[in-house]
């Protein structure tokens, strides 16, 4: 049916309810539909009104073939500029305020604090990724090895669904660099022995 519609002049980037036709095809799990739309010019980097990309949706739903196809057809994963050297000028109090207003609803930041929707972030800088025993992590986060460095936090918080598609943290992140640096500087303080700044 999609091929017939496209042959009849349908717009492969048409939107309905804040989603593109490609998002709807991914949500339905139809690889052939995804291929038809992409071959007709659908934007593989399109975002829904809440920031979900087709790749994020495919990975989130475990649609490995769809994800692989999208990756091989023009998906761009943004990479924010490095921020480590900017941490020395960060405003920790502004980071704390931002965290309190935006992040605290889902994340605890107290020593021995319980998990909420997301993991407790006490000691997050330098901690192994996806390492809180009480949390159920996405395959994406489980596959990202190593500890949370300043730059890994920078990449993740820039836009979790954009930089690390498939994660469960379906939020727009902290796209503003100054705010992101301030938040990361605040996260650094959530420790008995904060890791030195670069």
Describe the structure.
- The chain is mainly alpha-helical.
- Helices cover 40% and strands 2% of the residues.
- It is built from ten helices and two strands; from the N terminus they run αββααααααααα.
- It has helices at residues 2-7, 21-28, 31-39, 54-60, 64-71, 92-103, 139-142, 150-158, 160-163, 177-189, and strands at 15-16, 19-20.
- The mean pLDDT is 94.
Structural class: mainly alpha
Number of helices: 10
Taking the sheet with the most strands, its summary is:
2 strands, antiparallel
Q: How are the strands of the biggest sheet laid out side by side?
A: 1-2
N-to-C series of helices and strands: HEEHHHHHHHHH
Mean pLDDT: 94
Shape: elongated
Number of strands: 2
Supply Rg. Answer: 19 Å
């Amino acid at each position: 049916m999609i091929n017939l519609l496209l042959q009849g002049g349908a717009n492969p980037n048409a939107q309905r309810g804040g989603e593109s036709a490609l998002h709807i095809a991914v949500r339905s799990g139809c690889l052939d539909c995804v291929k038809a739309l992409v071959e007709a010019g659908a934007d593989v980097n399109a975002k829904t009104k809440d920031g979900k990309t087709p790749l994020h949706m495919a990975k989130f739903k475990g649609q490995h073939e769809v994800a692989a196809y999208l990756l091989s057809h023009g998906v761009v994963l943004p990479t924010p500029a490095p921020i480590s050297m900017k941490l020395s000028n960060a405003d920790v109090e502004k980071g704390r305020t931002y965290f309190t207003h935006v992040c605290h609803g889902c994340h605890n930041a107290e020593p021995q604090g319980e998990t909420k929707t997301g993991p407790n972030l006490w000691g997050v800088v330098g901690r192994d990724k996806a390492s809180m025993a009480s949390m159920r992590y996405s395959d994406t986060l489980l596959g990202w090895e190593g500890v949370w460095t300043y730059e890994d936090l920078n990449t993740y918080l820039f836009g979790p669904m954009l930089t690390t598609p498939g994660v469960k943290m379906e939020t727009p992140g902290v796209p503003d660099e100054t705010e992101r640096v301030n938040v990361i500087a605040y996260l650094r303080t959530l420790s008995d022995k904060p890791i030195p700044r670069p």
